[in-house]
Amino acid sequence: MSSHREAPEIAKDPVADSSDLYAFISPDRPDTVTLIANYVPMQTAAAGPNFFEFGEDVLYEINVDNNGDGNPDVVYQFRFTTTLRNNRTFLYNTGPIQSLDSPNFNRRQFFTVTRVQRGGNSTVLGRDLASPPCNIGLLSTPDYGTLAAAAVHDLGGGRRVFAGQRADGFYVDLGAIFDLGTLRPFANVHNHFGLAKFPSATGGVNTTKDLNVHSIALQVPITDLTSGRGPVDASRREAVIGVWTSASRQQVRIWDAEAGRHVSSGPFSQISRLGNPLVNEVIVPMAKKDLWNRSIPAYDKQFAEFVTKPELAGLLPTLYPGVFPNLDALNKTGKPRADLAAILLTGLPPGVVAGFQNNTGTTQADMLRLNTAVPPNTAKPSILGVLGGDLAGFPNGRRVFDDVVTVELRAIAGLTVPLVDKGFTPDKAAGQLTDGLTPDNLTVPFLNHFPYLGVPHSGFDTPAH
Fold this sequence. Notes:
DUF4331, 12 strands, DUF4331 domain-containing protein, 7-stranded antiparallel beta sheet, alpha+beta, 5-stranded antiparallel beta sheet
């Protein structure tokens, strides 16, 4: 998974667990960037009576670096409050919720959006903005699309925001991948560890297809994020931004027995973050995952060795004997993977991919890098992004439909080594590697407009997961 339950400590704290991050030029408003940060992963649709929500005691942030040093230059902060209309009922709603201010909507959340610039200058962009309810079912939320649309708030100046439940758009075969590195399409050539029973080759199974998340989606003018005053040429570094999301809690949390709740105080400390998909998930070793979550990209040099010599690259030739001989030979040279360092830690410099760059300099930092001067591909986008010849997709930012699992699997398997070493020939399987899933394996379609992620699965309609 991209970052669902990716580290021991954050797995115990889902409301602060940043599960997916997206950053892309808005296809229907190409003068803006859309940033989406997902939290509270692995939500089953039927979850009453206490439905999922954001944490009141969590500071959610979307961070933007526009000078390449791995430190935030622009930060969007989100804080949530919860109100209860009727303290004499156990119900989330006491009738159909047909508007955000419906008297039947008992437990409501509101949020504030603050923009903080490097140096400390802050501006409140929106206050007491309503989140929609969860998608409960046919009677409780009979027209969920209308409720969600009403929760898209205009912040002025071409800025919009939404915070609420969405369908999880990340598709991945967790059950196979974490069963000793099995990829169902290649299961017949797995080494099977000598076991008599083993899986046969099939398509992937989407673990998250009926699950929901809570999304913070923000759409702002490009010029709100870049260091320049206006659009710049795609060949210039000023066009590139680095994005990551984070969640923080106050350092002291005690139980107030009289009030019957936890009370937090003290300075905020970061406990979760996410830039590129799958980095903490499958690259950072377990012993350092919590440290990674507490760090900021400016200090990611300490994790660079795990990017340039990824454990999974060493495992593939063992798990799939004879399938990756060229990767095996490369691994045995001990050479650091400069291709992976460029893709994940510095961005691709000019000249590596024709007509493209998203390089932020020499600082090694895990950020989702977006060249804001590359126009969106609305004609024929490829779910493989840059690997599929579509310069508007991952790892140039990340769109909601990009197949990041396949892209990163193929990169780790050696498909991107020729970007930095023309003499290397990738194994044939490196260009075929996949977990067997595409957006067609989702049961809810993406939207073609903000906030782009699909309508959340209904508790009444969705089968038990």
